[in-house]
Design brief:
This protein is of the alpha+beta class. It has three domains: 89 residues, Uridine Diphospho-n-acetylenolpyruvylglucosamine Reductase, domain 2; 111 residues, Uridine Diphospho-n-acetylenolpyruvylglucosamine Reductase, domain 3, CATH 3.30.465; 217 residues, Vanillyl-alcohol Oxidase, Chain A, domain 3 (3-Layer(aba) Sandwich). Helices cover 29% and strands 23% of the residues. The protein is built from 15 helices and 19 strands. The strands form four sheets. Strands 12, 13, 14, 15, 16, 17, 18 and 19 form an eight-stranded antiparallel sheet that branches. The longest helix is centred in the last third of the chain and has 17 residues. The chain is globular and about 65 Å long. The chain starts with a helix and ends in a 12-residue tail after the last helix.
């Protein structure tokens, strides 16, 4: 969109229709409003609405439709995969209302709420949400994309526990939706993300989980071969109370890291056990015996300490990521991963993770939803930092080569871990029947294609 076209938009009409701020690229504060966690993309929307509630979202969607703009939504920007050129961006970061009902074991979170707020509000009652590996991620985007976290093998996807939500659909209508009021929309949004509307609050179940036994163990990268092969044999034997992943990490020489890890290629074993500590220690013993750790952080922890399992970065950074599901993990698949991303590969990827799925993740939700990936036994996820022209080319190339190397064992995947896969591979994650129904519902709820998201009519 040209600058002249931007000036022709009646932004004053939009500002008069909403309570929150409205920004165009020339405004002070525009950059702060649009910048997300993933700094690989520099959003350049035509207009931004800092929504304060559902009515602001509805007014923004109606205004965009009248003026021929597509609509995108962002809370934290962790899932940012494009520069959002020439759209109206709805920023939901101000929508932070949160309520926890400890008797009903329910929480209701506004579209700008992050998991840390829910964890802290639920913890005094001995309850926990089905949050992910990082408590800094937004609740709504994570949940509508499925939601895979340390409780998942016991309790399933976060989307499986949604009871109700409020959403603004492409016609600018505010709807409160549950399984009884609109079963089709309730099914589609839980897994189809923002394809069918902008969720303004979401209600979901909590589980009784005041503590866990877990954390991470860092091993020398030179032992990657033995560790990954041992993990592929050990992990599938674990019960549903135990979640684990193993990651190849190329760590920077950052003085904020513990000295044994600075500037090293390491193997990071992640472990979360919901049973007692003694059982957790017995389960972990075979992996501990493979190599001498550089750092062992596994301990008994309150659920509020769950970030210690993955130790995901908390500061914004440029990221290019991809992921797939694996139906099996034979020795040949591990060898292929090590060839492409092991300690001798010179790979520019800074993280390559294998995560155990299965358990409750493989079972249908009590109230069916559109979450893809239940047939995968493992996930493979990788990311790099595309900082500079060489890395901007090398990181996607090596990630693509890694994904291609495991193609013989690929089985679908998770929408939330697809990363920069692009719309066609993401839509292919759903089976034929679900994909057809999602497209039918897209035509019903967004016939003009006003909204973004992975599903297209």
């Amino acid at each position: 969109m040209t600058t002249e076209a931007q000036r022709a938009l009646p932004v004053g009409d939009l500002a008069a229709a909403v309570d929150g701020p409205v920004f165009v690229p020339s405004d002070a504060g525009f950059g702060d409003e649009v910048t997300g966690f993933n700094l690989a993309h520099l959003p350049t929307p035509a207009v931004v609405v800092g929504a304060t509630g559902a009515q602001d979202v509805a007014a923004a969607v109606r205004w965009a439709a009248r003026h021929g703009l597509h609509v995108a939504v962002q809370a934290t920007g962790h899932g940012l995969t494009s520069d959002l050129d020439d759209v109206l961006l709805v920023s939901t970061r101000r929508m932070t209302d949160l309520a926890v009902d400890p008797v009903a074991r329910l929480a209701r979170a506004g579209a700008g709420v992050r998991w840390r707020a829910v964890i802290d509000a639920a913890a005094p009652h001995g309850l926990a949400p089905l949050n992910g590996s990082s408590s800094g991620i937004g609740v709504v985007g994570y949940t509508t994309g499925g939601g895979l976290g340390p409780l998942a093998r016991r309790h399933g996807f976060a989307a499986d526990h949604v009871t109700r939500f409020e959403i603004v659909t492409a016609d600018g209508r505010v709807r409160q939706v549950d399984a009884a009021s609109d079963p089709d929309l309730f099914w589609a949004v839980r897994g189809g993300r923002e394809s069918f509307g902008i969720v303004t609050w979401i209600e979901f179940g909590l589980v009784a989980q005041p503590r866990f036994h877990g954390g991470g163990i860092f091993f020398p990268g030179e032992r990657a071969d033995r560790l990954l092969h041992a993990w592929r044999d050990w992990a599938p034997r674990l019960g549903e109370d135990t979640s684990t992943s193993i990651a190849l990490l190329a760590l920077p020489p950052d003085p904020a890291l513990p000295p044994p890890l600075q500037g090293r290629f390491v193997v990071h074993l992640r472990f979360a056990h919901l049973g007692d500590a003694g059982e957790g220690e017995r389960l972990l013993a075979p992996m501990r015996a493979i190599a001498e750790p550089l750092l062992d952080g596994v301990a008994e922890m309150p659920w509020a300490g769950v970030d210690a399992v993955h130790m995901d970065p908390t500061a914004p950074m440029p990221v290019w990521d991809r992921g797939v599901g694996l139906g099996s993990l034979p020795a040949e698949a591990v060898d292929a991963i090590l060839t492409e991303a092991g300690p001798d590969s010179s790979s520019p990827l800074v993280l390559v993770e294998l995560r155990l799925l299965g358990g409750a993740l493989a079972r249908p939700a009590a109230v069916p939803n559109a979450v893809a990936g239940r047939d995968a036994a493992f996930s493979l996820y990788c990311l790099g930092v595309p900082a500079g022209p060489e890395a901007a080319v090398a990181v996607p190339a090596r990630a693509t080569a890694l994904i291609e190397a495991v193609r013989p064992w690929t089985a679908g995947g998770l929408v939330a871990l697809a990363g920069q896969a692009g719309p066609d591979p993401v839509v292919a994650l759903w089976d034929d029947d679900d994909r057809a129904l999602l497209r039918e519902l897209k035509r019903r709820y967004d016939p003009a294609g006003v909204l973004g998201g992975p599903v297209r009519a």
